[in-house]
Design brief:
Oligomer: single chain
Radius of gyration: 29 Å
Mean pLDDT: 82
Number of domains: 3
Structural class: mainly alpha
Length: about 160
């Protein structure tokens, strides 16, 4: 006869489910509910955790992201409104401040929407180290002219794509 899940029958199942859905570490949940074994929590999380709770958590996170986006858009609109007012009254310093804030809002919006990618791009084929590795590789292949020609061709293609 199959054993019943100790988490499903636990008197504080709702709190345990909530902790697991929110991403709390299983070890932390196990230390809080000493009568529940860590492996039982892993099994419960994988096999019994109601899908609707996981979906509800995802929906809540999406709603928070939408709220943040709306707040940034509101800030941008307010900064542009202040810019219009400052320009209309000839307050150039205030106008510059409003421009700076509006630019900051645009930058943040771009990041939030994934339109600005600030990750560094490294072109390996331009580095001195790459030229050294390339030279060593081709020199090592000197006794194998067919392989050397094939590798040299592949490297030239790669370098021309990255140029």
């Amino acid at each position: 006869m199959a054993r019943s899940c100790t988490v499903c029958t636990h008197p504080e199942r709702a709190a345990i489910d909530k902790a697991l859905v929110s991403g709390e570490a299983v070890t932390a949940v196990a230390s809080r509910y000493l009568s529940v074994h860590q492996m039982a929590l892993y099994r419960h999380k994988d096999e019994h955790l109601p899908a609707r709770l996981v979906k509800a958590q995802d929906a809540a996170e999406a709603a928070n992201a939408d709220t943040l986006l709306a707040q940034v858009r509101t800030l941008q609109a307010r900064a542009l409104g202040i810019l219009d007012t400052a320009e209309g009254t000839g307050q150039l310093m205030a106008a510059l401040g409003a421009i700076r804030e509006a630019r900051g809002c645009l930058e943040l919006l771009g990041k939030l929407m994934g339109e600005l990618d600030e990750r560094p791009v490294v072109n390996v084929t331009l580095s001195a180290e790459w030229h050294q590795v390339r030279g060593v590789l081709l020199a090592t292949l000197q006794p194998y002219p067919d392989a050397r020609a094939a590798v040299a061709g592949a490297l030239a293609t790669l370098e021309s794509r990255n140029a």
